[in-house]
Specification:
Blueprint (H helix, E strand, L loop, with lengths): L13 E4 L4 E2 L15 E4 L5 E4 L30 H11 L8 E7 L6 H14 L2 E7 L19 E6 L7 H8 L10 E7 L4 H12 L4 E6 L7 H16 L23 H13 L12 H21 L7 H14 L2 E2 H10 L6 H14 L7 E2 L6 H11 L14 H10 L5 H21 L1 H14 L9 H8 L6 H7 L12 H17 L4 H17 L3 H21 L3 H20 L3 H19 L6 H21 L3 H17 L4 H20 L3 H21 L1 H21 L3 H21 L1 H21 L3 H21 L1 H20 L19
Parallel strand pairs: 2-3, 5-8, 5-9, 6-7, 7-8
Antiparallel strand pairs: 1-3, 4-6, 10-11
């Protein structure tokens, strides 16, 4: 595959544990050290873990006015939150009745004090003997202390994860499976987020179901719920600031109207106190009366800081040039130096290499980076930076804060990523989109002036930062169905673990709007089919079945209204899909009837002549493959083999295509199941290995699309080996299948957890046959827990699976020697299901 060699490595994060600390941090480089206890990372990781060593914050006297609000510097004494600290302390403490691994979410709007509480808690944990790491969502070399010396942690490991709702789902789940979080001893992970949503609901379920982790959560209440508390905290902060701000007079500090609910957060109170102290030296100065004006006052002071540095020759760039770089940093920073050069050039702030280097150096003088070798440190605290971005964009209506006419152009340039190598542009685009989506949620004009127009011009941008950010975008008030319709074609066309949930929401809104217009039966059938597929991808089996029922009804109406090859084919597709949906909830006789009728409708169409006959033959092949599975489900294996072989013949008889390759691989997998039922084990193994080779090739090309099919096929491979008495080979294939399904469950447990349970049950049986009894019990118990959860929601569909699993466990306990256990077949899924 050709590749632009100017690209940096895409964030891959392949990690080989316990082979020594090494880092390939330059494009294309690899470094390996000796065999020691550590990690080797190839490619840029998607996140990094950094040790918190409890370093002393910078002296408060050296901080700029805005820096006094930054939670990192801990300028104002930590007050209150006694109940939260007590609760976190109990959660941290490891006792015999608590699991070794636990996760806690704290969520609240920005400025509520989440970071300060977490830092205070981290100090307490460190003093109690816990090692404390912070997880950052950016590529970069991990702190060396965070990867090797595991003996330093006496009590356990605590990991802090900020901006949890900004992390892509796959990256967040990768963090929770990091080997450093699964070493010996207690592990606690504290996640901070501004909002909960489907990202957390999915993660919470997965943590409990797949990792067996204890999960808790609470919303951080406002620090100051009443006026008396607010005044006490205001005066405490004002007294501290007055000791640091020159020429201030604490006796002249004017207290704002603290009855305003806007002053319920820690940051807003400290902001009001800081600004009141800053203007206290001159009673003729107007005290800003709103939070926006207070942020504006601090931003004016930041500009004064730049002017002071320029006057003292500490920087050479002009004020407007610095202003532009600050905006770029807010959207794209912090980044490594080489990427900073590309970002500044892309934004049009500087073009000549020497000028770009000077701009980066001057910005670093104004805002020193936290990490050596990095540039474009954003304004802090976050809310100040977000206010800066919002006030720079025209349309906010605050006449005292003039917008910057060049700001929209800079933002749009970063979203385009023009002139940057592909991987760099993708990273910058994702970061900028993430920030814009967050700011737009609080400042409507940012959505109206920048974000939504950019999406209308380039709807492919909507998927640039992953499913979680797209979910925030589609929840913006001004996102209409017209924009959703423009975004829809750029959603992954098939199953995609990071987008399945948000794609379901997009298509649901579009379907509701389009169906409300009372379209003709053909269009109704297509809408129900499209929505049903998205529901199935997201794992909502019952709702997907309901949509295919509606699609069949609309297809029947289409045939009645205007019978034609096209309407017959549409009805056949709806019937074909309904067979899959019925089988997914174990309604096999009904699934068989639906599949039979689909084949009946397609057979004469596939035998015709003309340009459309070829596509009808592909559809018939897929329907026959489906029919073969449904016949096998009800025990008609001889008839199933006939249908399965017809499907294989049709897939191999046409011109080679991606659709044909997918169809052939699935048909071969299913035919192998049928051959095994007919007692032809050796033939079945050869057939499924042919399918495995196709799926591996397809998975190498598009892993996010084809991994589920490869996992299903590997389960079939394992079963065929087991039937031939080749238990070690069966274990190898099943373990690979389990590994793939575990990764898939991390992203979408609803869609893949039942398949994981079935393969775990099979693996348990193989291990039992090999006298590996402890492992066998472990996997069967895990499978039982999964089926038990699903059985609670749908007893009719899953009670049989539970009974079989419990029969297996009973047989294990009763037998002192290996016993043959029940096994679960998972047929390959139709790629048009």
């Amino acid at each position: 595959m050709n590749r632009d060699h100017s690209d940096v490595p895409t964030p891959a994060g392949y990690t080989l544990s316990n082979t020594g600390d090494a880092w390939a941090d330059a494009p294309g480089s690899i470094a390996i050290s000796g065999f020691v206890d550590g990690d080797v990372t190839l490619g840029l990781p998607r996140y990094r873990l950094t040790a918190l060593a409890g370093a002393t914050p910078r002296a408060a006297e050296t901080l700029r006015l805005a820096e006094l609000l930054d939670a990192r510097h801990r300028v104002v004494p930590f007050l209150g939150r006694d109940e939260e600290q007590r609760s976190l302390g109990e959660w941290l403490t490891a006792t015999r009745d608590r699991p070794d691994r636990a996760v806690q979410l704290i969520h609240a709007p920005g400025g509520q004090g989440k970071t300060r509480l977490a830092d205070q808690f981290a100090d307490t944990a460190r003093k109690a003997g816990w090692e404390v790491l912070r997880a950052y969502l950016d590529p970069g070399e991990p702190d060396r202390f965070a990867t090797g010396d595991q003996r330093r942690a006496i009590a356990g490991l605590l990991v802090l994860v900020d901006y949890g709702d900004w992390w892509p789902a796959t990256d967040l789940r990768a963090l929770f499976t990091d080997p450093r979080l699964h070493r010996g001893g207690p592990v606690r992970v504290l996640v901070l987020a501004r909002a909960v949503g489907y990202w957390w609901h999915a993660l919470r379920y997965w943590l409990r179901a797949t990792l067996g982790v204890a999960v808790g959560e609470f919303q951080l209440a406002p620090l100051a719920p009443n006026t008396d508390t607010r005044e006490r905290l205001f005066r405490t902060a004002a007294a501290r600031f007055a000791a640091l701000v020159s020429h201030s007079r604490i006796d002249a500090v004017r207290v704002p109207d603290l009855a305003d609910p806007a002053y319920g957060s820690a940051l807003s109170l400290q902001l009001a106190a800081l600004v009141a102290v800053a203007v206290s030296h001159d009673r003729t100065l107007r005290v800003p009366s709103t939070l926006v004006d207070m942020y504006g006052y601090l931003l004016d002071r930041e500009v004064g800081h730049w002017r002071q540095l320029l006057a003292g020759n500490a920087v050479t760039s002009g004020i407007e040039q610095l202003d532009r770089v600050v905006l770029v940093a807010m959207l794209a920073g912090p980044v490594p130096y080489y990427l900073g050069q590309a970002v500044v050039g892309c934004a049009g702030v500087g073009s000549e290499p020497g000028r770009v280097a000077q701009l980066l150096a001057d910005h670093s003088t104004c805002y020193p980076p936290r990490n050596a070798g990095w540039v474009l440190e954003p304004l802090q605290p976050d809310r100040l930076g977000e206010a800066y971005l919002a006030l720079a964009i025209p349309g906010h209506g605050w006449s005292s804060h003039a917008p910057k006419p060049w700001a929209v152009g800079v933002v749009r340039a970063l979203l385009r990523g023009a002139g940057m190598p592909t991987a760099q542009a993708a990273r910058v685009r994702a970061g900028a989109l993430t920030v814009l989506a967050e700011v737009a949620a609080g400042w409507a004009h940012v959505a109206a002036a920048v974000l939504l127009p950019a999406l209308r011009d380039d709807p492919a941008l909507a998927t640039a930062a992953g499913g979680a950010v797209l979910a925030k975008i589609i929840d913006l008030p001004d996102v209409d169905v017209e924009l959703l319709a423009r975004i829809e074609p750029f959603l992954p066309p098939r199953r995609h673990v990071d987008f399945d949930n948000v794609a379901r929401e997009v298509v649901a809104r579009l379907a509701a709007d389009r169906l409300a217009r009372n379209p003709d039966p053909v269009e109704r059938a297509r809408l129900h089919i499209a929505y049903g597929r998205r529901l199935a991808n997201a794992g909502d089996r019952e709702a997907a079945l309901e949509q295919t029922d509606l699609a069949v009804a609309a297809g029947e109406a289409a045939v009645t209204t205007a019978a034609s090859p096209e309407t017959f084919a549409l009805l056949a597709l709806a019937l074909h899909l309904r067979a899959h949906r019925l089988a997914a909830v174990n309604r096999y006789p009904a699934a068989l009837a639906s599949a039979e009728r689909a084949v009946e409708l397609l057979t004469p169409l596939a035998q015709g002549r003309g340009d459309s006959a070829g596509s009808f033959r592909w559809a018939l092949a897929e329907a026959l493959d489906n029919l073969a599975l449904r016949l096998s489900n009800v025990g008609s294996h001889e008839k199933a083999e006939v249908a399965g072989r017809r499907a294989v013949e049709l897939f191999t008889g046409g011109s080679r295509s991606a659709r044909g390759e997918r169809g052939l691989a699935g048909a071969l997998t299913n035919l192998a199941v049928i051959e095994a039922h007919l007692g032809r084990g050796t033939e079945a193994l050869a057939t499924v290995r042919d399918a495995e080779r196709i799926w591996r090739r397809l998975t190498d090309e598009e892993p996010s699309v084809y991994r589920p099919e490869l996992a299903l096929t590997l389960n079939t491979v394992s079963l065929r080996h087991a039937e031939l008495g080749q238990m070690n080979a069966a274990v190898t294939a099943a373990e690979e299948s389990v590994g793939i399904f575990r990764n898939l469950v991390r992203a979408n447990m609803v869609a893949f957890e039942l398949d994981l349970a079935a393969v775990l049950a099979n693996l348990s049986g193989y291990l039992w046959q090999l006298n590996r009894r402890t492992e066998a019990f472990q996997y069967n118990t895990e499978a039982e827990a999964i089926f038990d959860r699903w059985g609670g929601a749908n007893p009719q569909a899953f009670s049989l699976h539970l009974r079989h699993l419990r029969e297996n466990i009973a047989a294990m306990r009763a037998q002192q020697s290996p016993v043959d256990l029940r096994r679960w077949e998972l047929g390959a899924q139709s790629f048009n299901s």
